[in-house]
Design goal:
Elements lengths: L1 H10 L1 H11 L3 H24 L6 H19 L3 H4 L1 H22 L9 H4 L8 H23 L12 H15 L13 E3 L3 H7 L3 E3 L6 E3 L5 H15 L5 H13 L4 H22 L1 H8 L4 H16 L5 H14 L9 H13 L3
Parallel strand pairs: 1-3
Antiparallel strand pairs: 2-3
Helix pairs in contact: 1-6, 8-13, 8-17, 9-11, 9-12, 11-12, 11-13, 12-13, 12-17, 13-14, 13-17
């Protein structure tokens, strides 16, 4: 009887896969019934249940799952060749369960409507519009930088602890929800990852655990990046699975914050995307505009770049390649490098925001 149940569960992987493929063709249905229907309830239950814990339950879950897998393969090593059919059934049964949990608890958000449609923001723009918005971002970033550093050649020091930032991030979303009610964030479940060291060497600054809905941030990244990264992971938690959309929401949540350090991190975050897009389109134009950016801001960018370069290692590209392919498999055609859409959202949002 147990063997038959395992077989049925393993075979359920096929209809599950076909159902997800079918739903992926109907983003309006996913948006209405899942992303704005079932998912917010699931997310809130998880955050209420696990958000109060001072540690990452999801990281512990991964740890115990890894230990269990190693133990299972060790205990069953002798029958792997003799009883291939049965152990494969058990493996596929476990895969079917995980596949179901992933898509039910979070993964279907990959197939929702694009953000510009759900938030009613345009996504087309010209180089002239990009240049105009970039100049405005430079002006705001320079002013905030000078107010913090009192010298345009010194990098800005963010005088907030990472714990302070965790406690303050929701205030930006509270301000943002006045304009976009769907971005209401409560209760909170934002934590440092137990695996911050591995995350750093893999090249990631954070992640959302799709099985526990905990937003995880790499506790080692520079404090300059901590607010935007935290806001980015909260965006995932709110059901915006695409990396580019989470980046845009992080920009909005930090620049709508009342705290100057959050605003500075948010505006310079958006500025970096716009500068990179100008460089991609016209290197000469980039060289003519980069001189107007405070040297101290460029030093903040360098601080982050130096951090990641200090942790480069031979296996990092493989992890990023794997994740990039995972994103492409989930309708993010450019994987981790889909920056143009972020810029499109920033340009059109900034054009309508004073």
């Amino acid at each position: 009887m147990l063997k038959k149940k395992k077989t049925l569960i393993a075979l359920s992987l096929i209809p599950q896969f076909l159902l997800v493929k079918l739903l992926s063709n109907y983003p309006d249905v996913v948006e209405l019934y899942y992303s704005n229907g079932l998912y917010p309830l699931i997310s809130k239950i998880f955050r209420l249940t696990l958000g109060w814990l001072p540690f990452s339950f999801g990281d512990l879950l991964y740890t115990f799952a890894g230990i269990y897998m190693i133990r299972w393969f060790y205990k069953n090593r002798k029958r792997l060749r003799k009883d291939t059919k049965n152990w494969l059934t058990e493996v596929f049964a476990a895969a079917a369960f995980i596949y179901m949990a992933f898509h039910l608890f979070w993964g279907l958000n990959y197939y929702r409507l694009p953000l510009h449609k759900s938030l009613n923001i345009e996504h087309d723009y010209t180089t002239e519009q990009l240049l105009e918005v970039t100049k405005s971002l430079i002006e705001k970033s320079n002013a905030l930088h000078f107010e913090i550093a009192k010298n345009d050649t010194i990098k800005a020091d963010i005088k907030l602890s990472k714990k302070d930032i965790f406690e303050m991030v929701p205030a930006g979303y509270a301000n943002l929800k006045k304009q976009f009610p769907n971005l209401k964030y409560s209760p909170t479940s934002l934590k440092r990852s137990i695996y911050s060291y591995p995350l750093t060497y893999m090249g990631f600054s954070g992640y959302l655990n799709p099985l526990t809905n905990e937003a995880q941030v790499d506790g080692l990244i520079p404090v300059f990046k901590f607010s935007t990264t935290s806001a980015h992971e909260i965006a995932h938690q709110l059901g915006f699975a695409a990396e580019n959309e989470a980046n845009f929401i992080a920009f909005m949540a930090t620049t709508n914050h009342d705290n100057i350090y959050f605003k500075y991190s948010g505006y310079t975050f958006a500025l970096r995307f716009c500068l990179n897009e100008i460089y991609r389109r016209d290197e000469a134009l980039y060289e003519s505009i980069i001189d107007s950016v405070n040297t101290g801001i460029l030093k903040n960018y360098k601080e982050v770049r130096d951090f990641w370069e200090a942790h480069e290692n031979p296996i990092e590209p493989y992890f990023k390649s794997f994740y990039g392919n995972f994103l492409k498999a989930n309708r993010q055609s450019k994987g981790m490098q889909s920056y143009n859409y972020v810029v499109a959202l920033i340009v059109n949002y900034h054009a309508t925001t004073p």
